[in-house]
């Protein structure tokens, strides 16, 4: 094998695959001049040859036989951009077994089968790289795995889903309702017709699991991640948050606050963060990841988390890394996982925002306050959001907005359960965790 | 050599050296558990053994003989944290020649002698790593060299000097004068007693040269960088910028706008950027680097650019990288430089902010406008900053603030020269380049 001239087998030619092929073909000379490596598109495996593609695939390189590509001795390195667990998993395992490094952007696969794939790569002595699987074009995985390899990371908080950040930005900056913002995201192609994977946090949860793998070495899969989406966030929540100096973001949070052998918490939920926090300024469909380390302090990496070209750029960076390693006949550092206890959501300590509609009559606040007190949840601030009684005198109820001091989730949930049974409570609105409250 | 147990020779035990030794000693077990590499402090070379140090240097490892450390067969890897060009350069060359990888945080050395050192490292087949030389704890060099190795980067703009960002933040957010903000920076230890290297942009210029090396492969040294500092920025400039929707930041700008073989511009100067630009939100002594690439789009990396622990964290990341490479008997990718034409500051195209004090009488604006017109500089907006004539009728002059459309620096400088000769012009204030103007 001539490590300065390598043939790439690309599996999948959708949005990212097409962008990668375009980069490899159009920028071939520039990349070769800059890096000393000539990358040739050796094969592009697709589901159907019939489909019309606006992608400059070299003559005769399109095939429907992905299984042949991964074992083809003419192919030096495999890029998997099909998405989904199968057949991607089987194809990657076959490629690794055949001694070919693999680059993938497949978050679902890595978040569910990472341990198996990394082990297969280590056994084969080749690279399995996946920078593009989290936060698209943002260099995140490499900084976490290499630059911060010796750092005791306490917490990583990420805006890792562009669709939900777009929706929340439209709600915060433009005053849109959730449904209008979602419809706009769909019309712009940021959200799918069925938006569940994005808005209910499944996509972010998969990325949280991968962050837990690489930043904490924790053996975690997507299903281990506590998850809440943004479909319950109302215009009232957004408006109240703003008035209190906060912004609501869907965050993937991975933390190990106590020590590096203590329990790791991995969760995705809407979060109120101070409007002055660097993550609060991350707008539209941008992604950003905020890292808090013992030595390094606070870091933030910000950029395009999705889209064909940004994601293809991350894949290309991995490809060039794998080529360098092929040239020296060695693999880069593997991902080593260990069993660490997971912190259940019930044990998480946080401040909370809670909004209730209650009967508008004397004694109600006392009754609600008693519930908080019974569960040792201490209230930091309470506001009544304008009594809603009409001129007619009909009691439409009053909205009470609470921010608690830091409390244990279990106790806050017990409060909610008691509040449900309180006859003066008409409606229990959003419960949103608050980070960075004084 | 046992690559899982390596002895580190540390040259220099000041702020960063002390923090690194502390990390290596205190976190030894944690780092070994996490990475599989046991790093031992083999030697710490200092200028004087007499000085009292609050650093847990292992018994008997302190020495004044740095030259012996770099050739000591008991030392596997050398970390240079002395700063300055000599003797750091000679020691690093000796270490490389002895086959030892070197990690350095020495921006001055890399910005002046990078080409020689990288060549020496490549010849020796070992690593010379320098993540900590630019933007302290922020992973920047590795993402630029590796993640973005295939990217056509068009521009990098960085806030890479924490002292000046602190001063400008105090002026912008707190309304402080330059001198008061500088005094506060000095009292907090952010600025030296002689602040020249920071406030006149020498520190940022060295970092700009290194960015040009790694992001563009351009053979550039610190002295090639066009440089202006912040000591001429007035409270009026800050206030006018704010009213126009801008923030003033000292930026290191490296760009290659035309093509990847076109001229590279490398410069450091105060810059007006829109208040909505991500760099505008970088406050206090934080650093951030904004990267614009063809495929990846806009990226920003944000964090602590200085300080013992953040910088030591970056050094530790490099150390672990070098250890991995020692273990596989190979070096990472070297920095390959090429001759590229530099774009002289005279050829740069930019919008400009210019502020003049002129006589407060009819016809003055016409005279000034004629100068702009004569040099093909088109004015986008002009404001008169309140006529300053007193009730007494004495003509104290009027302040005119111009923002130009994009123009060529040479033409703008020719305007300034003509304006100097115009008798209605009493004072020529700041000329500040504007980025992101419509």
Helical content class of chain A: 25-40%
Oligomerization state of this entry? homodimer
Poorly predicted spans of chain A = none
Annotation field: number of helices of chain A? 14
- The share of residues in extended strands of chain A comes to 15-25%
Number of beta-strand segments of chain A: 17
The major sheet of chain A is characterized as: 11 strands, mixed
| Chain pair sharing the greatest interface | A-B, 56 and 56 residues
Please give the alpha-carbon distance between the first and last residues of chain A.
Answer: 60 Å
Mean pLDDT of chain A: 93
Shape of chain A: elongated
What is this structure, in a nutshell?
Two copies of one chain form a homodimer. With 438 residues, chain A is of the alpha/beta class. In chain A, 36% of the residues lie in helices and 24% in strands.
Question: Topology, please?
Answer:
The structure is a homodimer.
Chain A: E1 5-11, H1 15-26, H2 28-35, E2 38-45, E3 62-63, H3 66-71, E4 77-80, H4 88-97, E5 102-104, H5 107-124, E6 128-129, H6 141-147, E7 153-159, H7 162-174, H8 178-187, H9 196-199, H10 202-216, E8 226-227, H11 235-243, E9 246-255, E10 265-274, E11 286-293, E12 297-304, H12 308-328, E13 349-358, H13 364-374, E14 379-384, E15 398-404, E16 407-408, H14 409-420, E17 425-434
Parallel strand pairs in A: 1-2, 1-4, 2-3, 4-5, 5-6, 8-10, 10-17
Antiparallel strand pairs in A: 7-9, 7-11, 9-10, 11-12, 13-15, 13-16, 13-17, 14-15
Helix pairs in contact in A: 1-12, 4-5, 5-10, 7-8, 13-14
